[in-house]
Design brief:
There is one protein chain. With about 220 residues, this protein is an all-alpha fold. It has two domains: about 80 residues, Serine Threonine Protein Phosphatase 5, Tetratricopeptide repeat, CATH 1.25.40; about 90 residues, Tetratricopeptide repeat domain (Serine Threonine Protein Phosphatase 5, Tetratricopeptide repeat), CATH 1.25.40.10. It contains eleven helices and no strands. The longest helix has 26 residues. About 15% of the residues have low confidence.
């Protein structure tokens, strides 16, 4: 298919501002678990350094230096491990480097830290799809859509996998409809419209009653 995967690092990696906004500051805990002032200061300093490392990683991505970007994301996570955007972006870079299992682990960490974010779960699906495990990929896309039913990248890939498995059905038709109303990319829109035609035909064929083949009856025996 001519459609490029939506894991392209030029479009999928979060910006530095998004990375900073995604951090969960330790000052937001309740009084029973609040850090002592010195510990609080050290924690905040680690977070600031993690943000700086993540911003540096973004610069390396922009300069097409993925190895250095990976190192900077790992540095950010060594400073502050509860950093879901850094885990997710690290996973995207590792997947680009064909380091599939490492990428999956990074996406899993991001998904656990951000239980309402569909992006890392969808990205785990991309890992499986890249390995041609389409059933497992589809399961992950469904999980991403449970987090956000209208998340377009997961809709696209779920529809693509249904096409690859030749398993289009009523649920596929509903996903196609939700995707089409959002889609602005002309290549993806053409793909979705083509899948709509094929899916509608599959659904109609399944709805048509199938009668057993009728065999000609044997002529009655003559009675003398």
């Amino acid at each position: 298919m001519p459609i490029r995967s939506s894991t392209s690092r030029t479009t999928a990696l979060a910006g530095a501002a998004v990375l900073a906004a995604s951090l969960m500051l330790p000052g937001c805990v309740n009084n029973n678990t609040a850090l002592k002032p010195d510990a609080q200061s050290l924690a905040n300093e680690s977070i600031i350094k993690a943000q700086e490392a993540a911003a540096k990683a973004q610069e390396y991505v922009a300069d097409d230096r993925p190895v250095e970007a990976i190192d900077q994301y790992r540095r950010a996570l060594a400073l502050y491990r509860d950093f879901p955007a850094a885990w997710n972006n690290l996973g995207l870079l590792l997947l680009d480097q064909n380091r599939a299992m490492e990428a999956a682990e990074a996406f899993k960490a991001a998904a656990e830290l951000s239980p309402s974010d569909p992006r890392p779960v969808k990205n785990i699906g991309d890992v499986w799809q890249k390995q041609l495990y389409f059933d497992e990929a589809f399961r992950r896309y469904e999980q991403a859509l449970e987090r956000d039913p209208n998340y377009l990248p997961a809709l696209r890939e779920a529809i693509r996998v249904d096409a690859l498995r030749d398993s289009r059905n009523e649920a596929t038709a509903a996903r196609i409809q939700r995707a089409i109303v959002q889609e602005t990319d002309p290549d993806w829109r053409e793909f979705l419209l083509r899948q709509k035609v094929l899916c509608d035909r599959n659904v109609r064929e399944r709805a048509t009653p199938q009668f057993p083949e009728r065999f000609p009856t044997r002529p009655a025996a003559k009675v003398d």
